[in-house]
Amino acid sequence: MSGVIEYKLYPAGQSPVSFRVTLDPFSATYSFPNPDFAPRWTYLEEHQCSHCPLSADTQQLCPLAARVVPFVKKLSHLSSIDEMKVDVTQFDRTRHIVAPVQDILGSLLGLFIATSDCPHTRFLRPMAYFHLPLADADETVYRVLSMYRLAQYFRKEKTGKAYAGFEKLNDLYGNMVEVNQKLSKRMRLALSEHEDKQDGTLNAVSLLDALSQYVPASIEDSVRDLEPIFTSYWDEIS
Question: What is the pTM assigned to this prediction?
Answer without folding.
Answer: 0.89
